[in-house]
Amino acid sequence: DSARKGGFDHYMQKEIYEEPDVFYRTFNSEIDPDFISELKSAEEICVIACGTSYNAGLLFRYLMEMHCDTPVRVEVASECRFFRPRRGSVVIAVTQSGETADTIAALNMAKAFGCTTAAVTNVVGSSVTRVVDYSLCTRAGPEISVAATKSYTAQVAVFMSVLRELCNGSIKEDLDEIHKVIEDALLVDVSEGAEMCAGASDIFYVGRGLYYPVSLEGALKIKEITYIHAEGYAAGELKHGPISLLCEETPIVAVCTMDVSYPVMLSNIKEMKARGAPVIAVGTEGDEDLDDVADVCIYVKKSTPLGEMLAVIVVLQMLAYQSAVILGRDIDKPRNLAKSVTVI
Ligand code: AGP
């Protein structure tokens, strides 16, 4: 077992370190041009998924909204029976295992409504691939750790390559070397943040725009493997309820890179601090203002907006991982969780 971990302490850690290659391989894989044509003529794209895969789908919605006109809906697969897909929709199931019962059930319903279907999956030949019209494979290789890391980054890579095919003209940044930001992110020191998280019973993860779904995933990751209660929130929603929970014992992980949301995120952080909450800010290297408002700053290297987003994804995975190490958890096999959920 230790040989298969390749010198790493846990599969999760090994799998995080594989992400630069996984992203590169997946992002540069060809996508069926017929599928891209289907998307171009779709009235709507509907993404269905569970858990981490849902969070990747939600990120796709934000990316599409920023760069393309086609509307994207994202539904939790187990709730799909209450939201009929529209005729003319392309339905994309996102499922690392390709075996998730809720996702396959929702997909079958979409097929019955005559929708074009596709799956983003890490397992060639899995059940989902036998149901759909198009398969988009993530190139993550086998993921042993129950908590998804490299498979999530690979799902994001698929969606970014779909985006590149669909709306190339509107993406202004150079994506050829973007995987290198992940290599840089692996060098970021998250230890001080992990100490703070490991000592907490409740944590809020907040961000705006792309960093809302990224925060949802950060919170899901830490709760899965540390058993600490963590909630991802759109930063602007905090004041509509959860702010009543803020105190010295509830750290906030606030993603505050220097993107369009920067000024308002900075003022959100000040509001949280004013309620006594310790803040772990994830920001852009070179930002000196963040040091003045946050208790702990974790910086990713300055890059393009999509590059910094990928770096933040990896940093939040490492934050979860290191917090779980401090707590001595069974990281690769957290209690009550299975790698694929094949019951409804
Ligand atoms: C990920 O860390 C989780 N174990 C879980 O949320 C998972 O993403 C979910 O069960 C969906 O699985 P799938 O991608 O295989 O469909």
UniProtKB/TrEMBL annotation:
Catalytic activity: D-fructose 6-phosphate + L-glutamine = D-glucosamine 6-phosphate + L-glutamate
A biological process from GO: UDP-N-acetylglucosamine metabolic process
A cellular component term, taken from the record's GO annotations: cytosol
Domain of life: Archaea
E.C. number(s) listed in UniProt: 2.6.1.16
The keyword Chloroplast is annotated on this UniProt entry: no
UniProt entry tagged with the keyword ATP-binding: no
Assigned keywords, A-Z: Aminotransferase, Glutamine amidotransferase, Repeat, Transferase
Domain spans labelled SIS: 35-172, 193-334
Recorded GO MF terms: carbohydrate derivative binding; glutamine-fructose-6-phosphate transaminase (isomerizing) activity
Chain ranges passing through the membrane: none
Functional summary from the UniProt entry: Catalyzes the first step in hexosamine metabolism, converting fructose-6P into glucosamine-6P using glutamine as a nitrogen source.
Protein's recorded name: Glutamine--fructose-6-phosphate aminotransferase [isomerizing]
Native species: Methanoplanus limicola DSM 2279
